[in-house]
Amino acid sequence: MASVKEEREARAEAVRRVEREKPALEFGSAWEYSPAPESRDHVRLDERYGLFIGGKFVAPKSRKYFATINPATEEKLADVAEAGAADVDAAVRAAEDAYRKRWSRLKPADRGKYVYRIARILQEKSRELAIIESMDGGKPIKESRDVDVPLVVAHFFYHAGWADKLEYAFPRHAVSPIGVCGQIIPWNFPLLMAAWKIAPAISCGNTVVLKPAETTPLTAMALAKVCEEADLPPGVVNIVTGAGETGAALVNHPRVNKIAFTGSTDVGKIIQRATAGTGKRLTLELGGKAANIVFEDAAIDQAVEGIINGIYFNQGHVCCAGSRLLVQESIADTLLQKLSDRIATLRMGDPLDKNTDVGAINSKMQLDKIRELVACGVEEGAELHQSSCAIPSKGYWFPPSFFTGVAQSHRIAREEIFGPVLSVMTFRTPEEAVEKANNIPYGLSAGVWTDKGSKIFKITSKMRAGVVWANTFNKFDPSSPFGGYKESGFGREGGVHGLRAYVELS
Ligand code: NAI
Ligand code: MG
After folding, report:
1. Is 141 in contact with 356 (CB distance < 8 Å)?
2. Do domains 48-286+488-505 and 291-476 have the same CATH topology?
3. pLDDT tens across 152-181, in order?
């Protein structure tokens, strides 16, 4: 009689055979479901976008434009302005002017009304924004529609409420704004990162110059239009598109009072050096290599869903992704079998299809980085397990994958892969789990799965991570602070802690 393990292997092999034998499918290849693509008919994109400075879209003085593409199809979506130093200067001056003449003088309650208005308009446009986000960045519509955009709206509503209550957030202090804030954001949560940056800044009375990532500028442009529609005083929000040079011009501009950055640790270090000694305030939210720790007493099926959500969610383009799985040795075989069975059911394909679980990798550059690190993992002796799902012929894709036989010294156990690739390690005792979890240069997030409340408290209090989820993963709320330890950066975003970055206290 075949053992359970052999039976499972036979079943898995049968699934793999079906996968291998099915014809190469185009988008909508979701296994047993018919395609259910979200219509993009009502989404209007401009052919070319200017810079949003002083409340108007203006042509860049640099006269340069660059294309943003859909990473799932490689089709060009629009041309976007590349802001040069003179353009960044114009944006900073517009922000300074708006700060002095209008925004810092406005009654806090009136400031709040503008932010509420932005929140309401964003809510009305939710569907359109979700579609643009998925087209420009490759994330599944399920994510942009159900996670990103609702959180964007929640962030504006939440912070609007604080505008006239700041003295309650900081009792016994006089609270005042800082001035012009330069904000630089990445491509993994384009509109959500814009909301995390802009909503607290303007609610506290500051004005901003935001620089979106070069591969995902379109929802920021849509947000600029929302600011116009909300009649926000000109210059309170300015948006300059471009790549690293544009970001550097903003960081180095002498009239910027604060820099907020989310992105790679390498660029974070450059920015920290550039701002040192200038008097500019700085918050950095950088990389991560979160440990998801599963104890033998955990509810295993829930933990498997949490692991899936933690690393394959948004193609692993998540700084707080649960990219390391630490599983207690006694349940490792069972859990890994369940995990690989579950991965085999994930649907990769058209981001606009409502059935899609895993979308496109954001850019060719990111795909190359993932491939390089995965190749390195294989070379270093870890064992690669990959979903055999069909890969669309165009666009940038990487199948959900995990590594076993990972040593702590492997690059795949230490470096941010920022793709749908999980590194699995085992442990025997809680002490060993904590030690392994903390033994990296990062400290952004972590997860703990156990049946025992006491164990949750014991373990989480020893973790050097800004956020620790217990029996869940990747849950966000505007009232909950987010940020890191060590090379994951400093400062918090969200909640009362997040407001602190945007006020002067005396
Ligand atoms: P990046 O750090 O280069 O880009 C983030 C933002 O910084 C973008 O808007 C970019 O234009 C801007 N930027 C680049 N160089 C700059 C400079 N010298 N001064 C000011 N702004 C600058 O990240 P990249 O190259 O897109 O991704 C590389 C790796 O970084 C990823 O593979 C991932 O590991 C990590 N990453 C982490 C993120 C996080 O949320 N913590 C987000 C994006 C990437
Ligand atoms: Mg794009």
Report:
1. yes
2. no
3. 999 999 999 999 999 999 999 999 999 999
Class for domain 291-476, per CATH? alpha beta
d(CA 246, CA 259): 14
**Nearest C-alpha neighbor of 418 from the set 371, 349, 386:** 371
Query: From the CB of residue 57, how many other CB atoms can be counted at a distance below 10 Å?
Result: 17
Question: Tokens 């901003």 — which residue?
Answer: 208
Residues with CB under 5 Å of ion ligand 2 are 68, 136, 215
Ligand nearest to the CA of 219: 2
Domain range annotation of the chain: 48-286+488-505, 291-476
Protein fold of 48-286+488-505: Aldehyde Dehydrogenase; Chain A, domain 1 (3.40.605)
74 has catalytic annotation: no
Taking residue 282's Cβ as centre, other Cβ atoms within 10 Å add up to: 20
Our answer on whether the CB atom of 315 is closer than 6 Å to any ligand 1 atom is no
Residue 236 has pLDDT above 80, yes or no: yes
For residue 61, what pLDDT is reported? 98
CA distances from 346 to 318, 323, 349, 404 (A): 18, 17, 10, 19
pLDDT at 42: 86
Tell how far the Cα of 212 is from the centroid of ligand 1, in angstroms: 10
Q: Tell me if residue 319 is catalytic.
A: yes
pLDDT > 60? residue 452: yes
pLDDT tens for 372-408 read 999 999 999 999 999 988 899 999 999 999 999 999 9
Beta carbon of 214 within 6 Å of any ligand 1 atom: yes
> Is the distance from the beta carbon of residue 286 to the nearest atom of ligand 1 less than 6 Å?
yes
